[in-house]
Structure formats: C-alpha cells, structure tokens
Amino acid sequence: MSDVKVFTLEDLQAHKSREDLYLLISGKVYDATQFLDEHPGGDEVLLEEAGRDGTEAFEDVGHSDEARDMLVKMFVGNFDGPTKSSAKASAGGSTTTSSSSGTNPLLFVVLAGVGAFLAWRLFLA
C-alpha cells in the first residue's frame, strides 16, 4: 500500500497563494504552483479555484486528454472531506440526466477567445 498524503479542507486552504497553490479536482489534490504561468486560460482562473473544490470549473471548460495527463505529474494526495459533487448528492441533487458530459462548448469558446485576446495583447506590449 502506498503512502499517499491525505488533505483536509484546512490543509487545502493553506495552499492558495501564487507561491503555493493546490487545487482539488475530483477528490484529488494537485500542486499547480509551477503551472500558473503556463496555464492557457491565465493564472487568475487557477487562483480563483485555489483552496476549494475546482472540479466543476475544470470539467466545464472541457480540458483535453493532454491537460488531464498533466495532472498526474502535479498529484500530491487525496482529499478527505466533502466535495461539491458529494454535497450535491447528499442534498438530494437533481435526478434528471443530462445528455452533455459536463462540458459547456460556449464557455470553452469564450475562454479561448479571452485567452487569445490576452495573448495578442501580451505580444503587442
């Protein structure tokens, strides 16, 4: 059995600065500190989700398989506590089934446009 570190909500919230940023995605904790400057959507997106459950935001954007593979290198441990998805389930949640797989194409287009605009402005600066 491996010695995987287990994080609590307090542990997670202690790592939400630009110099030390952990993200919770699907019950797993990732150290995204070194990825801040490389994130295509900008560092603000990651900083906004730091210290809390960012699963919904991660899934809504529709990340590529390559992005999901990058998470493996950033993994630091598992989360021990309620997540947004477990809170919805315990609160009764919706019993309807959506035909989408949690992605919102319009949101992706908007974020891609914002990213392109910021990159364009960066190159002109």
From TrEMBL:
Annotated Cytochrome b5 heme-binding domain residues: 4-80
Sorted UniProt keywords: Electron transport, Endoplasmic reticulum, Heme, Iron, Membrane, Metal-binding, Microsome, Transmembrane, Transmembrane helix, Transport
The protein's name in its UniProt record: Cytochrome b5 heme-binding domain-containing protein
Family: Belongs to the cytochrome b5 family.
Source organism (scientific name): Apiotrichum porosum
Coiled-coil annotated spans: none
Subcellular location: Endoplasmic reticulum membrane; Microsome membrane
GO MF term set: heme binding; metal ion binding
Topological relation to the membrane, as annotated: Single-pass membrane protein
Region feature (Disordered): 83-103
Main location: endoplasmic reticulum
Stored PANTHER family: CYTOCHROME B5
Transmembrane segments: 106-124
UniProt cross-references to SMART domains, sorted A to Z: Cyt-b5 (SM01117)
InterPro entries: Cyt_B5-like_heme/steroid-bd, Cyt_B5-like_heme/steroid_sf, Cyt_B5_heme-BS, Cytochrome_b5
GO CC annotation terms, alphabetical: endoplasmic reticulum membrane
